[in-house]
Amino acid sequence: MQNFDMGRYHRRRRLSSLLMIGSWCAAVAGLAILGLILFTLFWRGVGGLNLAVFTESTPPPGAAGGLLNAIFGSVMMTVLGTALGTPLGILAGTWMAEYGRNSRLATTIRFINDILLSAPSIVIGLFVYEVMVVTMGHFSAWAGGCALALLVLPVVVRTTEDMLLLVPDGLREAASALGSPRWMVISKVCYRAAKAGMITGVLLAVARVTGETAPLLFTALNNQFMSTDMNAPMANLPVVIFQFALSPYPEWQQLAWTAALLITVTVLILNIVARALSSTRLKKD
Amino acid sequence: MNQVASVATPAPANSITASALRRHTLWDAVLKHGTRSAAITVLLLLGGVIATLVQGSWLSLSTFGPGFLTTEKWNPVSEEFGALAPIYGTLLTSLIAMLIGIPISIGIAIFLTELCPPRLKRAISTAIELLAGIPSIIYGIWGLFVLAPFLQAHVQPLMIEAFAGVPLLGGLFAGPPYGIGIFTAGIILSIMVLPYITSVTRDVFETVPPTLKESAYALGCTTWEVVRKIVLPFTSTGVIGGIMLGLGRALGETMAVTFVIGNAHKIAGSILAPGTTISASIANEFTEAETALYTSSLISLGLLLFLITFTVLAIARLMLLRLQRQAGK
Q1: Cβ–Cβ below 8 Å for A126 and B53
Q2: So what's the ipTM on this one?
Q3: Confidence of residue B8 (pLDDT cuts 50, 70, 90)
Q4: Quick check: B252 and A119 CB within 8 A?
């Protein structure tokens, strides 16, 4: 103990401080990037925000216009995707939490679902292209909606299952002891207990597909004009951003930034609402 | 009379009638089988994706054979297609993303679990997770208009200059500063994988029993030594799982990369040069592909991407699953 090596001690302290400063910097850098991205979006996007954005369709090159058709298309396809994906996801998640639990089938599905959750969305686009676009012979908003549904599905399956598993088994047993049949236990007890979490899951899924571009590129394609025909190509914000941002026309680039701002704000609001919902649920517990 | 009626009305509800029993049995069966078939649909979907991609890529795979994987040539006019350049671009951009992303993510996770004042912890975690929520096309447009010009003007010239005479590295950082290219795509990807790796790493760091860390501190370990010798060994499986998850994302990321990669079907020695990735090739060319062979080659690329990411993600999930089982025991 007497020959305590002070030099070595200081070296260890220095190394530690150095790396901890590095870790501070990493955190600051992460936050700075988030701030920088949001700042750029507002800076470049807000300038283009005016009434025309919401009342006019996308313009031909070099002219002024708005994003009405793209906003409409995005909303339609997101609603379609959510409407198709959510019920299926909730049912599948229910089976895994309530009936399957630890069965081999449930474990396999859980694994596959986790893979689908992070599978490249462009591959989902190719799949829907082959199955729907080739079969129907043309691009359509239906195909776009189905591609989005395939992205909604795994998110909803996962959160539904997780949230139902959080419901204490005592509640299920109590309901069964009162003589409730299984379907009532699930629908009147488990679903109610897990409601906030399940809504969070759906909101997160909607947030995820709102900005999805890759699967729409070759399913819904794009449409320069206002179209309400679900059986035809339909404009949507992400593909408009893709097309307009890479164009040489300043008007188009400005619209791309405005569209990017709209999408980001929507997605962030959805994320924050979802988080607020799930945190109030946690507080109640 | 009134009293009698109010006593009499609940009576049927109390006794279970045969029809109610039948109804409940029916509903039970409907729910059980309905949910089960929904669950099986999820399984079938993945099978459907693979089957469809194999079917779609059959033409190109049977035309080019295994040479498809090793040919650099990509010529839509003469209809000669090879996947080597996109594979190279995909792997190289992901490698750059990992080299930059892993240390930063782990740094943030260490910050959140060891250094951060508790009051800020939740806010910073949320902010980092919001990064994951930003759609990839936003990263793309930001990368194209903000990051690429910045790198072109300030970073790439310095890199070219710094490595100019160096034997091996010189070639890696050679050529004019284009701004867009493999390097820029790697940087964008590193920002995008950050939240994924960070949130998994932070979660597994928090599973380390406080007693272990406190014992190490009591023995005189510095914070870094606690992280290096207690936290990291304890959580290595989870951290690698998180990294693989991020890698899976990076490999399959499409829009952000498409904006900044430059879409050049060639393998340049320099990482500053434009290139292409599997997903960017598909996104850029799919709607322009007119012949059956061209389309089929792009679908083969999609199949290839799916197999690569499937493997990486499966390994990631298995590692995280093993960790959960250990924690359960």
Answers
A1: yes
A2: 0.89
A3: very low
A4: yes
